[in-house]
Amino acid sequence: MPLKRRLSGLAGAAALAACAMLWNAPAAWPQASTIESTVLTPLSAWEVGALEPGALALPNTLWVGSDGATLAGVFAGLPNTFASPAARRLALGALLSPAMPSDAGTFKALLERYEAIGRLGAAQALADMVRLSGQARAEPNLAVFAAQAELALQHPSEACRRAREVAPSLPALLKLRAFCLAIAGDAAGAGVAIDVARSTGAADKFLYAALPLLAGGAGAGPPARYDSALNSAVSVTAKLRAPAKPLADASNLALINVATSPQAMASLRAEALVTALARGMLDPAAARAAALETLKAWPAGRGAPVMPPWLRALRDVDAAAAPLRPAKVADYLARAPNAAERLALGRLFLPEITAPPLAGPAPASGLRLARSALILGETQAAQRWRAVLGSETSPAALATLDAALAVASGGDSVAAARQRLAASVTDVARGQRDVALLSTLAPLPQDLQALLASTSGSGAPLSANPSLLALLAAADRGAVGETALRTAILLTEAGTATDSATFASLVGALQKVGLASAARAIVTEAILG
Hints:
- This protein is an all-alpha fold.
- 59% of the residues lie in helices and 0% in strands.
């Protein structure tokens, strides 16, 4: 994300004056004496949120119990990606729920919150939140974050409008304005803006070399870069040559920019699409439309890149008759090389996974579709697939699925534990592990508790995990948002879920602060894993 550094001193003032000449100043507000109606206080940047329907909404007191300095550190500590969909939903629920902080004057925490939203690739939410808050629209740092989100969403005119609305007090804003002038074809203005940005000490060899191409300049330009939404937009628009492994260091907003850009090279767009889908950053319907565009644009003939398997899967499923599609989806889910691509395929084929079954599926297909639906948070779809599975399905597999369904739907975890244990004759260790997971949601009877002693993993001892101790302290304070974020971070750390004591503590902390649905989602994933 962009730098959070303000200009200062005489050089900065001169630079701002020079850059201001390139843009029309916004109209002045009317004098207070001309306003007769009551003026409503604009929403602060903390009070706005952007949760989608059905998303995890946290209470508006979620930051009570956490001071600003602590929140800033937790926001900054969030990873860019989550292997667990439940952990990502939990983190975004905290970041995107509207609320007032316990320490509203902590500007650093505010910046870290918005930067974390962008870092996780929640582009539309970030753009909407800045638009809804008068404070956020006027703050240069937040305007930069929102402009990057707009670039990721293929809205360059909106990004440029945001750049015009605030004083260019940051190097990132000066560079953005140079980009806006360049794409408008104003080569002279872009050149002046580049000089202004340089005068502030903002070094950016890539951008300064590439921008003239956008304004009609000639030359090959530098190799493409995708480490920010701005650099990605420049690279795609100028059709810069991609280096080896071009998206290896791409930011999440840059991935969204490439994935949604019809101008991007088909093979590059396909790579960005599958990665963005796996990370849960794209609306599934929009991603499928973009994938179909990519499929149509795929080059043919000698020397054409090899089409990735997931894109061939889309071609195959899309060409099949509707009743045959779910079985084909299940087949491709089984063939996915890793969990990330299974997630991407699940989101890509969400219509097939959530559609009512038209016929009784083969046992393996029905199980895969039900499991995928549960991982994606589609409990009702999973229940529909379970309902059409016959007695020929493996009892142990059914018991695992039923245990996960019971947890996801808020059912009786004790009854699920008994059923799971009864079906574990051929895989006693796995059955005991699932019973241990179920025990984190509710105390089990004595006869089942005796089975739990042998299920502990090899993770770090409870007392040796400072991150877990910080989480438990947050839960003790009733700090809902901090507990949610610390849980998401811990779930991402390697080995956490294999330590049953730690896992039980995570679930207990969520339940303690009233996030029982998030606890159930985490246990559901663990059972299916």
